Here is the input.
Amino acid sequence: MRLAQRFLVALVLGWATCFPISSVTRAETPAEPSTEEVEVLEQFVENYFDAWSRVDFEAYDDCFHPNAMISLLGEQGGGLRALWTRADFVASQKSIQEKKGLEERPIETRVIGFYGDTAVVEASWVLYRPDDEDSHGIDIFHLARESESQPWKIVYLTFWTDSDLAPTEAPDQAEQAGKSRPRVVVSGFGPFGGRDENASSIFAEAIVDAFPEDEFSLEIVPVIWGAPAKVLAAQSELPDLWIAFGEGPEFRVESIADNFRAGIPDVLGNAPQTRSIVKDGEARYRTQFPVTELADSLAQDGYPIQVSREAGNYLCEEMLYVLSDASAQQEDFQSLFVHIPILGKEIEIAGQRVAFSDEVLEEAATHFAKRILDLSGIYQLTPDQP
Here is the structure.
């Protein structure tokens, strides 16, 4: 069996089981791509290799669909040697290339399957190694696009190489062996608005409960001015990641933190003593967490989440700001803030209107946790985790 055919077996399995992209439909039978379509696909492959060679891993990562999977086959395409998520693969490639600074170029590119909005492209390539013999390999790209006006994205990449540089472990397996699991704090707010329960604290607790064997801890923040800073200061040390939730009108991930409090009383009836959250602090922070990617990946799960620039100037804004301020001062501390609907609110999930019940909330919490942890780059889910 030809190497490309072996790759295609993996591609078909990967597409069918790993990428339920509802907005992309595959034609029943292959079509003949136009000359223009072939040129676009060839240019995509050229850009992919060029981004890697230029050590531009923002552009390189943008070549992949958020749910992409990557597999490495053994010698001459036989047997599976390694399997990665997009985040793990890009991290491993970045680690290699930042140390080596090599150049990799396609030799021959050909379209071996075209189905309108999905395509399979084979590219043989050479890796130039100044201090050693050049390496060679073959990549098979399974690509998809939302429509003809949208860019192609890699949803499944399978490759074979004779290079000894190919990583066979995810970065946290290879580099974090023997080290403790990352520490994650998940927070929500206490009762607010006359309700006995706050959906954000229930959501946070559901995430913590899903990881009983790991370093996950729960913080319930009172809806009181100044409480976010006190909760943060009470930590013996900052965690690797802090995921904060609050109630809002809809699912929203916040991208901007303003150093400003509205003159709204807290649950004790007190207005803020100062309008600035941190005296002489930065006027505004932009979150460093990849919120657009998070929103895109959750949308693929059926959750209509928006990237927001207005956190409300209340306690949610204060929580977001103190976390952003801490992240700015400690590079290895990641944080983000997500608004979720109140319990009982009618929302849309996967195109259907449903009430945001406890059951729906728990399922949503699992999806959000998986996506956030994947994008954080500090944590790899094992097969038995949610």
About this structure: The first helix runs from residue 3 to 18. DSSP finds ten helices and 16 strands in the chain. The first strand starts at residue 64 and ends at 73.
